[in-house]
Design a protein that fits this description.
With 74 residues, the protein is mainly α. It has two helices and no strands.
Length: 74
């Protein structure tokens, strides 16, 4: 079983920058397409992660709901 690699946001920025640089300077079209494909996958993963985080954040509106305890007072 393979362990998941946890990249920091800084790691992702460095990888994206390296892929963009490689795309600019590599003369072989098939390798440039490979770099572009990996970059696209990374961006899609980042967008999905942001979407999930936004959904989790919106599910928690910051309000605390207490149950009505007034029945205990009777």
């Amino acid at each position: 079983m393979r362990e998941a690699v946890n990249f920091t946001s800084h790691d992702v920025i460095i990888i994206e920058r390296a892929l963009r640089t490689a795309m600019k300077h590599d003369r072989e079209e098939h390798r440039s397409r490979d770099y572009q494909e990996v970059l696209f996958k990374m961006q899609e993963s980042a967008n999905q992660a942001l979407s999930v985080n936004a959904q989790i954040t919106s599910d928690h509106d910051g309000l605390r709901y207490d149950y009505d305890d007034s029945a205990d007072l009777m």
